[in-house]
Amino acid sequence: MIVGATGVVLTSADRGNSWSRHQLDPLSSFVGVAACADGSFAALDFFHRVWIGDAAGGNWQARTIEEPANPLAITCDGKDRLWVVGGGSTIASSSDHGASWSTTVVGDDAMLASVQFVNEREGFITGEFGAVYRTADGGATWEALPKIGEDFYPYAAVFADRDRGWVSGLAGVVMQTSDGGKSWSKRVNEAGAPIYGLAIDRGAPLGVGINGLVFRVSGDQWKLADTRKATYLRGALPFGDGRILVAGGAGGVEVMTLDGDRKVTANN
Fold first, then answer.
1. Which SUPFAM superfamilies match (predicted)?
2. 242 lies in the same domain as 124
């Protein structure tokens, strides 16, 4: 499933070989989507709504979310609870598919840009001014970890497990942790280009970014692996079989492998 501006939702039941287009409220602007263990989907609308869809990607219903201001990221944990982060250092959670929400404010006023659970109890949030938060009790409490850097703003973040994680920032900066966010080390990005999306493919990270660039890790360095015909790439979804779904500028959707084979599956 892919979501985008003007209320567009694209769904595929055959790993990107064909696509169906769903038009929701054209005034919506989707900034993220999450898949839950019960088969449902949740799409985050920047205009303070969370849209809930069924396992087939249909029957969408809008639920209002008052906080955080400027919602930026959404995930669904192993117990089917929704988590949304954004402005005001606010974390919102729902255990009833968005019908009601609880909020927690952590730290000073800052934008929280990513949220991910690596198992039912452990999760991470990254945000403005290098903020990193970790939960070990399923989100009941969030611990502030040492900052990545006061001037660091994460474009994207991904954790492979409770210890290993990566964040990308301005000017192509990529940072890595091997101790669950307690410390971070800068990694070489040979292209020096911004990476807008991160994902885990068969245990290893990959990134996509400006000018259709696709990156893989080789040793401690981020190497340019491929270039697609796009102004930018925003997200990547590995299928686990060597194929990767990428999406980005101008609504392009593409299934690719990193050996150069390419198949354009949609351009909506």
1. Oligoxyloglucan reducing end-specific cellobiohydrolase
2. no
